[in-house]
Amino acid sequence: MQRLPIAKAGLPYIIGLSALLIVFGFLGWAKITGFTLILTLLVINFFRDPERVIPRVPHAVLAPADGRIIFAGKVFEDRFLSKDTLKISIFMSVFNVHVNRIPFSGEVESVNYEKGKFFSANLDKASRDNEHNAVVLRIPGGEKIVFVQIAGLIARRIDCWLRPGDYVQQGERFGLIRFGSRLDVFVPPDSRLAVIQGERVKAGESILCYHQTNGKNDEAGSLDR
Fold first, then answer.
1. Could you give the residue numbers annotated as active site?
2. Which is higher by pLDDT, 128 or 126?
């Protein structure tokens, strides 16, 4: 059976708007019917969830979100890793697919939700000050990767379906942020960057960087259990 290409989280919104559309159309309220139709189409577009072809490339770290690269460089990550890292930030506009995907296979070590402000997600201060949900992932070889869902100016709800101890595979869906937001990814500093600032990427398909495995033969698509 073919999967419906709409995120389940969006179905209540779509069903509710569709019901209103039918009522307003039946009553003959042309202007409000037209407005509701446009709004319904926009919501359907926002919650679309297309299938993706996951590249099985050894050591590749995939984009966890659709959007535009707004930062790619080395920083000191002081909240979850306390070490130098390569940070890659992806800004999602309201027109992007907002379903998030796992960037690398591994075991979820922790899921850290923190309330915060709602600055525009493309601002640097959004990484630290905005409401966010950070996932710490232990990958084969013992290294860790952190990916952070960050709420934006309009986004007011972060969904994450992961729990500590979960074993996850690269490219799997893991969450959703509603109505414009940002994803930050922190990887080991010796990772080889594969994107540039301003480049557009797709969740589960685009390669952000290549993780160095210190000579081990682990692959991004596999996990020792």
1. 181
2. 128
